[in-house]
Design brief:
- The complex is a heterodimer of chains A (about 1050) and B (about 200).
- Chain A is mainly alpha-helical and about 1050 residues long.
- In chain A, about 65% of the residues lie in helices and about 0% in strands.
- Chain A contains 57 helices and no strands.
- The longest helix of chain A has 29 residues.
- Chain A is globular.
- Chain A starts with 16 loop residues before the first helix and ends with a helix.
- The two termini of chain B are about 35 Å apart.
- Chain B has a two-stranded antiparallel ribbon.
- Chain B is built from eleven helices and two strands; from the N terminus they run H-H-H-H-H-H-H-H-H-H-H-E-E.
- The longest helix of chain B is centred in the middle third of the chain and has 18 residues.
- Classes of the chains: A mainly alpha (about 1050), B mainly alpha (about 200).
């Protein structure tokens, strides 16, 4: 049990009791004295040795342990790297634990002191390693992190836990529970604690191992004892705190806890207990899937804590922000209860308004001249002198504002437009010092509060302000108006770019480090992501001022290179990863619906562009020498082990391929080299596309194959869902590529070794989300195969054209699409704007305006031959018929949907007609609206009357039957619900694809009639892209 | 009982527990040690008070900077009160200045305390500054320490009886705006009818 100590030799001159007491009283509460002591290595060594010395008197050891504990905790955590360094160096944690293991329960005082020291030191280490408990981490000592990680790893090893966990049953229970609450921050540690058994239980388990049941959280020893501790007044607070730490993001524990009892504790009259109970309740609520009424009680307690302005307010606000994060329901509830007003009032009270910025010209970046002057200096000075507690509260309030407004447009608008109407604030803050003056008399708009935080010398505030900006920029209206007008747009961009000139500074110029903190950059980036959407006025301005090189820098920053600019790079891989991830995200939003020029510019600055192609002036951001043997930057990303990164890269490619020019860029201009590092011949244009496709094939294979996952590394760190996202993006990219008018592109896909089989396996094994684009690929390829043979490639180009950004073709239909497009873009909420499946259709226009071409199609239809790309044969041979049939048959239970296909009609005309009428019937009944062609046009504008009219099965019937009568087109029911529609659509697309595969040659005749089918098929494919990528944009 | 414990009437609390045959929730030793701290502060021996608090629980002063600052401030006040100007200055330089460096929010309070030196017991001391020398300042600091210790023992820091009276008073004030009703006067405990 006892741990062999690193050194047990007694120091020749052991300090006396009175000396130690004197020392203790000197250092307690005095950071500078602690710092001095930490530098005295001999003394430190002696203290540690005295603590461990079993021969020394108990009270001497107690004093020494108390000194160690005091060194570790100052205001919760030491902020002094020197002190922390010496504690790690002397291995104080191990020493305290080792000393504890040799004590007996009667040595109460000594054990208590040791437990406190243990708790303090381990808490410091946990704070150093992170993740931080309350908002921004307070410790910054990167050089120590490695040692701290090791020590904590040991601390949560079974050997160490066997010593300290049993103390939960002793007099030290409260201290140890508090320690658990403080130190347990990661899921693996939570699991280890839950799995811990005491000696007796372990023995029992061993004996009856053959019938050992799966250990569940409820039987966890630690959890049981902690619950017992909540029954005792003196340990209640700490026990709740510990339970909160155990329950965070951990449903296994959270579901075991008595929520109602915990909520009742939140009404305690003791602040600490209130906080712990709220925290615990918050974590329980967050793990449960359905909203609970208990949230009301917690909200009201938290709001009271924030309003009261006590020392607990900041923590209360942090808890509130955690409660509301990613929870639209709770955010709305909190908003309804007036939380937004309380938060703004609090923030207003604590924020000294900064000098109002002159309206920033949109074309000139802010200069340092803007931020110099006496008023800025006094503002800075005040901000620097603000009590730490107030800074924390400001940070927490900002984070809560970000959480509350993340989802609802109404809340965002309320936040953005708040103009300080509440002048009377009854904030009684007894515990705050007088210096926390109330600034409420000055009128401040909410945006100026955020701006003040964004310009603040405190890193934590800048970071939190970026979060608010990010939440605000999810609203199109805010981006277009307040965001630009208030100057936030510039300042947040400056934070992302790390421009030092866009921050106020004192005359000395040393108010903060010159280099922007990487965490601020990371959170500013998330706001920038939202601000580069297609409708943002800032998109082009950002690009003009160096957005792209900066993004490229983050995307291609190399972990292995010591990135001296960013001290966090080594320890905080998460930040680094999130920078890369979010930079990719920004690129994804940026290229979406951008013109070919922007697209080329983006890929060339990123270094993804092939060197031989057009060179752009921006192309200087670190282009690599083309070498066939060296992997390109894009190669590196495509072989990323992180599913998240891979997903983003594929999504960028998918967004690039959203139109004809984009497809050409993706297939011809990207810098992709041989995935197997074989030297390639001097790259004919087609080989890039080929290489991309083989890369996609291997991604599809690797990611979809479950047996492979353990070695491939793609799945090993990531949950299933992200690998599914990779599949969705890969398939959607292909779905966009098959919209290409160039049949050679189809041939390329079809002949790419393994691609067809990989697709079939994905189709057979994956869920509906992944299947959807795959089915559309199949349908599209078969249709092009067959219909392409009856018309010229040029005609197909016209027919297949992806409906958006298609101004070049300039038909009537496209004019309408363009109009609808605008409308969708102008929709206030991105979510609403894009999550709706892109509907609307130009079929009617097409048919009515081009009757002659439909007729011409028929004539040519007879001259068909084997098929242009051979897709039908290749896909059939690959077994797609069977796979699709299985998918269709799985939904056999729906009679109206399966009816037309359950018995094959000999005549395609009849078959189609049955299908259409059957669908029309069902559609009116259940609002399912599943004709695959009718709404296949990837067009925006669900609000347009056109689309309502056209968006009906009747159109499909008409179109398929060769435009029998325009009148019948309007008969179809136009009222369509979105819910449940996707599944039906999928099924119907699958059925159609199957039909085409099985009886495609018979459809040729029909198809040549109605050229809109193939055209709308193109829309099907691209609707995947627009619909989903729209959702992606909003999702940030 | 709650009142007796929190306000530190140890012997009365003991008697009460005995006579009312209630099982005390706290051990009476803690009351006594709390009272020693309070007495030390009231007689102006801040040094002793700090030692005792640390003896009781070394975490209290470490985790509560404002409290620690107030204790140190009180110590400075005591130096000034005793006319030990040299020591006061030395102490302010050595200890308080460093505290102020770490927590700038204390600086202005420190300045206020230091300005006591300028007046040297003269009657012209402005009351805002002179108050620091008053016994009330000692009581205030002592109360703060008392509350902090109680909190560290997970006890309520305010007497429930006092809370009740506050609630009553607040309730009456609020109700007064809306209705006429028989009021309870806190001065003599009589109920004044409005009829």
């Amino acid at each position: 049990m006892a741990i062999i100590a690193s050194s047990t030799s007694s120091h020749p001159t052991s300090p006396t009791l009175s000396e130690l007491k004197q020392l203790k009283n000197r250092i307690i509460g005095t950071p500078s004295a602690k710092n001095r002591l930490a530098k005295d290595h001999a003394m430190m060594r002696m203290l540690v040795e005295t603590t461990m010395d079993v021969m020394a008197a108990d009270d001497v050891r107690t004093e020494a342990a108390q000194i160690l504990g005091s060194l570790a905790s100052l205001g919760g955590h030491t902020a002094d790297a020197t002190v922390l360094a010496v504690l790690i160096e002397e291995d104080a944690l191990r020493c305290c634990l080792s000393a504890l293991s040799t004590t007996i329960p009667t040595q109460v005082k000594l054990r208590l002191a040791l437990a406190r020291a243990l708790s303090g030191i381990s808490g410091d280490l946990a704070e150093l390693v992170g993740p931080p408990q309350w908002g921004f981490g307070t410790l910054e000592a990167q050089s120590l992190t490695g040692a701290a990680v090791q020590t904590l790893e040991w601390f949560f090893g079974s050997e160490a836990m066997d010593i300290w966990i049993p103390m939960l049953s002793g007099v030290e229970a409260g201290v140890v529970a508090g320690m658990i609450g403080n130190v347990v921050r990661t899921q693996s540690v939570r699991e280890r604690l839950c799995a811990w058994r005491n000696a007796g239980e372990r023995e029992k388990k061993e004996r009856r191992g053959w019938e050992a049941t799966r250990p569940s959280a409820s039987s966890g020893h630690v959890l049981r004892i902690l619950l017992e501790l909540t029954g005792r007044k003196e340990t209640l607070g700490n026990a709740l705190f510990a339970l909160a730490a155990m329950a965070k993001d951990n449903p296994a524990v959270a579901n075991e806890l008595p929520l109602q009892d915990i909520v009742n504790h939140a009404k305690s009259c003791i602040g600490e207990i209130q906080l712990s109970a709220c925290l615990c309740g918050t974590y329980i609520l967050r793990t449960s899937s359905s909203p609970s009424p208990a949230v009301d009680a917690i909200l009201s307690v938290l709001m009271a804590i924030i309003v009261n302005g006590t020392t607990h307010s900041a923590k209360g606000a942090f808890i509130l922000s955690q409660l509301l994060t990613d929870s639209p329901v709770y955010a709305q509830l909190a908003f309804d209860r007036g939380a937004l007003r309380i938060l703004l009032t609090t923030l207003r009270r604590l924020t000294l308004p900064c000098t109002s910025l002159p309206p920033l010209p949109p074309l000139n970046p802010p200069t340092s001249a803007l931020f110099t002057g006496p008023e800025w200096e006094s503002w800075l000075e005040h901000d620097l002198d603000q009590p730490k507690a107030d800074i924390r509260l400001r940070e927490a309030t900002l984070l809560s504002l970000a959480s509350i407004s993340l989802f609802s447009n109404d809340i965002r608008r309320a936040l953005a437009e708040d103009e300080d109407e509440t002048q009377s604030i009854d904030s009684n803050d007894p515990s705050q010092l007088h210096s926390s003056t109330s600034f409420s008399h000055q009128s401040q708009s909410s945006l100026s509060l955020i701006l003040a935080a964004l310009l603040s010398p405190h890193t934590s505030l800048r970071c939190a302000a970026c979060h608010v900006v990010r939440a605000l920029t999810r609203s199109v209206a805010v981006i277009r108006t307040n965001f630009v007008d208030s100057g936030l747009g510039w300042i947040v961009f400056a934070a992302f770019m790390g421009w030092p000139q866009a921050r106020p500074r004192t005359a000395l110029g040393t108010s903060g480090s010159e280099e922007e903190d990487i965490r601020v950059v990371a959170s500013a980036l998330r706001a920038v992501c939202n601000a580069v959407c297609e409708f943002s006025p800032l998109k082009s301005i950002y690009i003009e001022h160096g957005l792209l090189p900066r993004l490229a820098e983050f995307i291609h920053s190399d972990h292995l290179d010591a990135d001296s600019d960013y001290p966090d790079a080594e320890s905080d891989v998460d930040t680094e990863d999130s920078l890369r991830f979010n930079s990719l995200w920004a690129v994804k939003n940026l290229v979406r619906k951008s013109g070919p020029a922007t697209k080329r510019q983006v890929i060339s600055v990123l270094g993804w562009h092939r060197q031989k192609s057009t060179a752009y002036p921006e192309n200087d951001s670190g282009c690599v020498k083309v070498s066939a043997l060296k992997r390109s930057k894009l190669d590196d990303l495509l072989s990323s082990h992180s599913a998240k990164i891979l997903e983003q890269v594929l999504n960028i490619l998918r967004n690039l391929a959203e139109d004809e020019d984009g497809i050409s860029i993706v297939l011809n201009e990207l810098d992709i080299r041989n995935p197997f590092n074989f030297p390639t011949s001097s790259s004919p244009t087609s080989s890039t596309g080929f290489l991309l496709l083989s890369r996609l094939t291997s991604i599809l294979n690797q990611t979809s194959s479950p047996s492979h996952s353990s070695h491939s590394g793609i799945l090993s760190h990531s949950p299933y869902s992200s690998s599914q996202d990779v599949l969705i993006q890969s398939a959607s990219l292909l779905a966009n590529l098959v919209n290409s008018s160039d049949v050679n592109h189809h041939r390329m896909i079809l002949t790419c070794p393994g691609m067809v089989h990989a697709l079939r396996r994905v189709l057979a094994e994956q869920g509906p989300e992944v299947r959807r684009p795959v089915i559309r690929i199949v349908l599209e390829m078969v249709k092009v195969d067959l219909s392409a043979s009856v018309t010229s490639a040029a005609a197909i180009a016209e027919e297949l054209g992806p409906p958006k950004d298609w101004e070049e073709s300039g038909t009537n239909a496209n004019a309408i699409q363009g109009g609808n497009d605008e409308e969708a873009g102008g929709t206030d909420t991105m979510e609403i704007g894009y999550e709706t499946s892109p509907f609307g259709s130009s079929v009617i226009t097409d048919i009515s305006s081009n009757p002659s071409s439909a007729g011409a199609g028929r004539t040519r239809g007879h001259s068909r031959n084997q098929g242009l790309t051979g897709a039908r044969k290749i896909l059939s041979d690959a077994g797609f018929v069977g796979t699709l049939r299985r998918i269709v048959d799985q939904h056999h239970y729906h009679p109206s949907l399966t009816h037309p296909h359950s018995h094959g009609h000999p005549h395609p005309h009849a078959s189609v007609a049955t299908a259409s009428s059957g669908l029309g019937h069902t559609g009116s009944g259940i609002g399912a609206h599943s004709h695959p062609y009718a709404h296949a046009h990837g067009n925006f504008g669900s609000s347009s009357p056109n689309s309502v009219l056209l968006d009906s099965p009747g159109i499909g019937a008409g179109a398929r039957a060769g435009g029998v009568s325009v009148g019948s087109l309007i008969v179809g029911n136009g009222i369509v619900g979105n819910a449940g529609r996707e599944d039906r659509e999928d099924l119907e697309t699958a059925r159609t694809a199957l039909d085409w595969l099985e009886r495609g040659d018979m459809y040729m005749y029909v198809n040549s009639y109605a050229r809109s089918t193939s055209r709308s098929g193109g829309g099907t494919g691209s609707s995947v892209s627009t619909g989903d990528s729209g959702a992606d944009v909003s999702d940030h | 009982m709650d009142y007796l414990v929190i306000e530190g009437y140890k012997s009365a609390a003991e008697e009460f527990a005995q006579e009312a045959s209630v099982v005390p929730e706290v051990d009476f030793e803690s009351i006594e040690s709390r009272m020693r701290v309070r007495e030390a502060l009231q007689r102006g021996d801040v040094e002793d008070a700090i030692v005792r608090v640390n003896e009781l629980n070394p975490e209290i002063l470490d985790n509560n900077r404002a409290l620690f600052f107030h204790l140190q401030q009180q110590k400075l006040i005591e130096y000034i009160r005793q006319g030990r100007v040299g020591e006061a200055l030395q102490f302010a330089q050595d200890e308080l200045a460093q505290l102020g460096e770490h927590s700038p929010e204390f600086l202005s309070e420190l300045e206020r305390t230091m300005s006591l030196l300028a007046f040297e017991h003269s009657s012209s001391t402005p009351s805002a500054i002179g108050d620091l020398l008053s016994p009330a300042q000692r009581m205030k600091t002592a109360g703060e320490v008392n509350a902090a210790i109680l909190e560290s023992l997970s006890q309520g820091k305010e007497v429930k009886l006092v809370q009740l009276v506050k609630l009553l008073s607040w309730g009456q004030e609020t109700l007064k705006e809306h209705a006429e009703f028989p009021k309870m006067s806190l001065d003599d405990g009589t109920v004044l009818g409005s009829t």
